[in-house]
Amino acid sequence: MQFTDLKLDDRLQRAVKAAGYTTATPIQEAAIPTLLEGRDLIGSAQTGTGKTAAFVLPILQAMLNHPAKRRRTRALIVTPTRELAEQVHSAIRQLARYTKITSATVYGGVGMVPQERALRQGADIIVACPGRLLDHMGRGYVDFGSVRWLVLDEADRMLDMGFLPPVRQIASALPRERQTMLFSATFAPELNALAAEVTSDASRVEMGIAAPACTIQHAVCPVDASRKTELLLQLLEETDTGSVLVFTRTKHRADRVARQMERSGFPAAVLHSDRSQSQRQAALDGFRSGKYPLLVATDIAARGLDVAKVSHVINYDMPDDADAYIHRVGRTGRAERDGHALTLVTADDRTAVKAIERTLGQSIKVRRVEGFDYGTPTLGMTGSSQGGGKSLPTSYRSRPGTAGRPGPRPSRGPSRRPGR
User: Fold this and answer.
1) What is the mean pLDDT of residues 237-252?
2) Which residues face 13 on adjacent strands?
3) Does residue 52 sit in helix, strand or coil?
4) Is the distance from CB of 80 to CB of 154 less than 8 angstroms?
5) Domains, in order of start, for the chain
């Protein structure tokens, strides 16, 4: 389906063309006509499939069809993270650029006064995270009596973060006469119950778990848990990389790994939920601009992170499940570019690797880094690159003389963090 085939206002068609959209993605083709009819919708779709435009365009079209006599909040979009809220807000501004429709964000980590102003004066669309929105509701700053559209985006992530009670509270405060859209990559029983509560006679669109781009090369790197950082440094030394996204399981580990990277000459930014909003935005901006070639993050960055040219995703820690793996590695290999997904695995990760292979529908190559002193026998992994075979491309070396020896150990000298 072409966007020109959709019954959209000329102003929206102009914005769609300016954004470079021509052919609708599967979720857009399935969802937009249904939403234009005003029906509730439950969608199964992941980040990166175009679902933001799939719900934003019908909302904008409905607002243009039924203009308000005065400005009041008419649509509420609830997201699990600040990053996703900003991404949705950016998409709204892009697609509403030739209209007078306004939007604002509401989330923690920043001042409340501008948000109070937007809520009181009534931005047409509010994009909010549950916690901060409830704070404003408790202070009496919110009038949602005119809300006609509700979107719950990445509901599975909100379940993981414990946001379902706040979401239920928010939904119960909205008018019953509304159009509701709920999007989630997966549906646990709790989410099915929530969908039944907040929607009415909803259409269901299921895209399934999207496979990673075929341009991504996957590999696992067996290593003892105590030597992960050394192997990561060796990989960075010997690999021709652009922007590298490194995932860790915990916030503490993300901070520690970033410090070790910087001490070894690799400027790194950090992204996790304990960072302030200004710190998170600075990390993303620095990563996008190339100021920081490495971004070390927890899974908060796996969803809603839109960086076009990530050359490598490195899983310092094994993700919790195959779905999380798909989300993480989906940050590379975008727009038909080549991408690489490397996962550092220990003996305890064998079962998780098999689950990922089942999801991918293929075996994952095992790579051992030539010249790295593993200190222990191979951890029971088998694969085409095992046994000392050449690993990753070695055309890039940030410091000469590193081949053929163990990865550098973090020095005890002062940090070379940019800007400090």
Assistant:
1) 89
2) none
3) helix
4) yes
5) 3-206 (3.40.50.300), 216-366 (3.40.50.300)
